[in-house]
Task: structure prediction
Amino acid sequence: MTLTNSKLRLTRLLLAAAILILVLPGLSVLATQTEEAPMIRLQFATFDPLAGEPPVPAELQVQAAPGAPAVYIVQFSGPVQAEWAEAVKAAGARLYSYLPDYAFLARMDAAAAAAVRSMPFVRWIGAYQTAYRMEGSLATGLEAQSVEPVELSVQALPDADLSALAAQVEALGGSVTAQYADELTSYLRVTLEKGKAAALAALDGVVWVEPYLHSVLFNDVGGGIMYVSTARTSLGLYGSGQVVAVADTGLDVGANNATLSDDFEGRLVQGQAICAGLGYRGTWSDFHGHGTHVSGSVLSSGKLSGANPGAHQYSSSFAGSAPEAQLVFQSIDDPTEQYLECIPANLLAGLIQPAYNLNARIHSNSWGGPTGDNTNPYGGYNTQASNADHAAWMLKDMLILYAAGNNGTDFNGDGRVDPDSIGSPGTAKNPLTVGATENNRPSFNVTWGDGWGLDFPADPVASDPLANNSQGMAAFSSRGPTDDGRVKPDIVAPGTFILSNKSQDPTVDPGNFWAPFDSDYAYMGGTSMATPLTAGAASLVREWLVEQRNITNPSAALMKAVMLNGAVDISPGQYGTGGAQEIPAQRPNNVSGWGRVDLAQSLYPTAPRQIWLQDYTTGLSTSNSQVTFNLHVGGSQSQAAEAAGSAAAEYHAVIEVPASPPATPEPPGKNPARHKVQPGVPLLEGMVTAPAAPGAVEGIDDLIVNGGFESDGAWVAEQTARTNTVFYSGSWSMASTALVDGQFYQAVDFPADAITATLRTIFRNDPPDVIGEYCFDVFSVEVWDESFSTLLGASPSAYCATDTDWWSLDLYFDPILANLKGKTVNIVYVIDQDDLFPHAVFYFDDIKLDVNTPGGEPSPTPTLTPTTTSTPTTGTPTTPPVSGGPLRVTLAWTDYPGSPSAARALVNDLDLEVVGPDGTHYYGNYGLYASGQCLRQVSSTIKWDQCNNVEGVYIPNAKYGNYSVIVHGYNIASPSLQNGGPQPFAVAASGDRLLSSAVELDNHLFLPMLRK
Result:
């Protein structure tokens, strides 16, 4: 038997000498077991049940009534198969929470237990002892006899009789202060003598008892550091259409929209006094100042500091990250209480769901508390953390954020901030847990030693100013790991001397702020401040996904994956790489997580980097073990992106090689083999830049004649009974009438030494034929050989615009370039008018076919009249580069809530694998765990992370070529549980000229519809 060793947990294992003597023989027996043996991993102990259970004193063994149902642990022989769980249920058991490895809590009678025990796939079945149900501090030494009244959190089975349990608590001399139940679980909050905790844990239906630990506020030129300005100016993202919920002390003077500061006026959806339902104050005004300040960081318009929201002008103001988002505010504090007493026992029903019902999809929380007693105060996965994961599981499109906490300290005085200080609910799996970096305000020459001399007594921390280096961490920011080995925080953002709104409530104590600014704004600091800045950034990510990626309802996992994939690495931190190195080089790490928020890299990376997304909501079960996505990185296509400029770096499409030529080749005329968008099917893969004026695009080596339609020649229009394409010379061409289809084409000779080729088109359609999310009047592009007998390539989609502005479309010919060199080919534009009304007229201008040749020299202008033979251009081709920038792949999933009694919180275990073009295999979070409880080692090179629900692969210099991104479903236990089901996930990737090639089930690679 191996015992949990985090933070001297021998104190949790009944430290009486007689008990220790009993444990030692068990240790010697289990030492002979192989590492591959499935274990039962509990807070009480980790053990292989086939080698012996841990010794439990008689008074802490469960005493079930004869013949009555009891709670057991049922362990399967391997990753959970749905049919195994169904067989157990059919025998008369009900499965409840998951326990690693491959086990569940199950309630059944003795006959059912005997039947389950005989099943070939059941490895072990045993009693769920009273000792297993208790947080360690409640069962050790004198604490077990203490008559001190304490508040306790009690988790019960979801179908437990809470009224009966409440009566039993009263019979023990205690009282119930809160309770709730839903389909997943039940909770009680009780006051009881500490020495009676064991009697409480022994009650039928109780599965976990722990001290109730009160939550507090985590407050002790952020937007610029996070590149919010790039999201605004380059992508037009301001938070419009997004609703963010904030749970905190209050908002300004409360009452209604009209009484709020001008920075919030008109954008408050609702203010909710959560305290009123719990017997406290019934208003949501801000008597403290904290709630107004964090709300300002999320979405202040900055009007009081010079912003002009009507013109989207926010520079040089104190606007929040998302100045046009809307707010749901929930007050959770009462001025008569020391702690945040109004946090509901049921976070889902009392806090998250009410905000969700008002269309909030981001929920920001700058509060939390300890997770255990003084021997292990932080890092635990307790009832509140499980509660937060419960809310996230039930509302998978709500991204919930929690502050990591301000418990960082250099207790041993070695000049480095100690690990293991994350508070709850920040220790939860699913929420985005946010740590704090330093801000960049060097004028505040206050050092960490000045402000927190006892916490930071040694250099280099002690003498370091609080806000002079955005590459460094705020010393107070809580560090991971969690007690079960997971990485926390997830991400970091500025959190020192943050300037934001000040509550106008006259009762606010000025001492609550770090420093004043004026009557409307003040400085504060903490992970409390980093969290709302990140929440505002998250709302811009969601706006981008909805408005520019056209993902109607992005999952929280996708938002999380996008942000973590683009987070910037700030290691080694501000103190160099010596003995005082602040941030490990490994990402993720337990200081800065996956890095600092960077919206530019997350949404709009510098060319030639591209972004690929997948929101796989279908999910995986153990039985359908993996999904593979195929990506292509770089090659000569990166040169094309560089030549086209940064505007084309993200928005593009690739000419696709047809699987086979049309069954019946046709001469010039309507092409039956073209890609046609059917009504009701969203357009995929077409991307365009922002609207551009005609003539705005400059050519490099333009092979198109009369691309601007200012003169006659070169273009050929079809004239058939079905089509009627018409040209007009002048500033643009009308390619079709509004009632019929049409096409026009031009023959061009490709140089034999071509390296890359890009077709750029400026177009518009008037009127747009758009219904909901779908376009019906569209155009596409095809490439045919000289005689129109073979289709060489086609645009991956058909295209349209959703307004009457001019748009720019780039098509990259690289996948078919080998079939074009030295040949005459026909570039064909095909217009398809649907039968629905209105019918669009398509206009084209400044069509350019730019071809790069070796050395960047212009290719000779070819003869544009189609001929039977072409005259190739001489020259020696240049070998394209074989590698470029990094490839980064991030997998995230919203996991089923874990059990507080388990030693590991993860329920559904997914694994990320990337296979490179040379056959090299890369594994998610590889190298993060050399050993220990988070490692599932298959071989010396295959090491899987079995703790985290975020995994990443980072390849510094990715070779150009095809990559397979594989998501494995190793152990998906949730389908066996109440309100479970397959495990959805999201993947985000970024790399040089990152393109999809035959991606399985990929429906979010490119814009489904062309939009601004």
Notes: The chain has five domains: 9-133, 139-211, 224-602, 610-635+883-996, 651-659+685-856. The domain at 224-602 is CATH 3.40.50.200 (Rossmann fold).
